[in-house]
Design brief:
The protein has about 350 residues and is an alpha+beta fold. A seven-stranded mixed β-sheet has the order 2-1-3-7-6-5-4, sandwiched between helices. Helix 5 packs across helix 6 and helix 6 runs parallel beside helix 8. The N and C termini lie far apart (about 100 Å). The mean pLDDT is about 85.
């Protein structure tokens, strides 16, 4: 826990034991920065500041959405900043604030174990460096909070800028025909869209939070102006993220159309080949039918001749009526019957 007293002379580092006296005397602006809300920090928030147990619980546990709670003498705010993770995952890095009459308490985290804890301190350390360098002289808690939140908004803008760079690279691959593996390319497209959607959600929800704060009566006119400006900054980030997301959606639709056209062309080629093979198969079947039909017609006389040519005890060939005339008649009749039957079926 870092306790700082900000005055005309700059920043003075103080101990946690001096907090009660610093808050009571009201000399200067007290800034308490808590990297992680452990048991000791929660005790200070409860006993020294007297914050509501639910607000302290929100500092200890992770909050999935921004929120604001107005109390009699302070405002509690929960915000998030994006941090890129592996495989397109977006980490929501939490920053909690208690903005009071003469103090600002900033509480970081908890953060995902995959995120470097130092990442959560980026905004407050940047603001502290500006104060020490003399480039920033906050006189009120809302001015200090404004500087911290503006740094958080810049991180959201930087994230949108980084994803936009990815979107332009993906768009160049689509229009240049250098997509590569379609599955991997689609994954990259949807990862970029997920990143833009995540930042868009953060900024939209945070803007709604500060929009509500602008109507709180307990905030001074100067603080109100800063709250309105922060709401406008969040709205600007949301608008930029929406624009880039729409542009990316155009890239996705362009690529999907390209895939559809290629699939249609390939399918047309397959259909033509299938049609050709079907016609060839049909022609072959027709030829086989004709050959089989003529073979059956010619086989019938051969069968009758074979039977009449056997060595019977009383050979029918020796009798005129039951011999050759009858055999020849059977051959002609059988062949003619088969011919007419096959002709009717269209096999000849």
């Amino acid at each position: 826990m870092d306790v700082r007293l900000i005055g005309d002379g700059g920043v003075e580092e103080r101990s946690a034991g001096e907090l009660a006296a610093l808050l009571h005397h009201g000399d200067g602006l007290v800034w308490v920065d808590i990297p992680s809300c452990d048991r000791d920090a929660a005790h200070v928030l409860s006993e020294v500041f007297g914050f509501h147990p639910m607000a302290i619980g929100d500092c200890v546990e992770r909050n999935r959405v921004p929120k604001v709670h107005a109390y009699r003498d302070h405002v509690f705010v929960v915000l998030h900043a994006p941090e890129r993770g592996e495989r397109g995952h977006v980490h929501w890095v939490e920053l909690d604030q208690f903005v009071g009459r003469n103090y600002l308490v900033t509480v970081h985290g908890p953060v995902n174990p995959a995120v470097d804890p130092e990442t959560a301190l980026r905004e407050t350390r940047a603001v502290l460096a500006r104060i020490k360098a003399g480039r920033l002289r906050p006189a009120t808690p809302f001015e200090l909070s404004y500087a911290v939140v503006s740094a958080l908004i810049r991180r959201q803008e930087d994230y949108v800028e980084a994803v936009t760079s990815d979107v332009w690279r993906l768009e160049q691959r689509v229009t240049g025909g250098r997509v590569g593996d379609p599955e991997e390319f689609l994954t990259d497209l949807f990862r970029a869209r997920h990143g833009l959607l995540a930042v868009r959600t953060m900024s939209a929800q945070s803007g709604a939070i500060y929009g509500r704060m602008s109507h709180l009566s307990g905030i001074s006119p100067g603080g109100q102006r800063l709250v309105v400006d922060m709401a406008d900054q969040f709205d600007r980030v949301r608008s930029v993220a929406d624009g880039e997301r729409e542009y990316l959606q155009g890239v996705i639709e362009f690529y999907q159309t390209t895939l559809t056209i290629k699939s249609a062309l390939v399918g047309q080629g397959l259909n033509e080949e299938t049609k050709r093979l079907t016609e060839a198969s049909y022609t072959q079947n027709e030829e086989i039918k004709k050959i089989s039909s003529w073979a059956a017609i010619l086989f019938a006389p051969t069968l009758i001749g074979t039977v009449y040519g056997m060595n019977f005890q009383h050979m029918p060939e020796l009798h005129w009526i039951f011999g050759y005339p009858l055999a020849l008649s059977l051959m002609v009749l059988t062949s003619a019957t088969l011919y007419l039957a096959f002709k009717r079926r269209g096999w000849l």
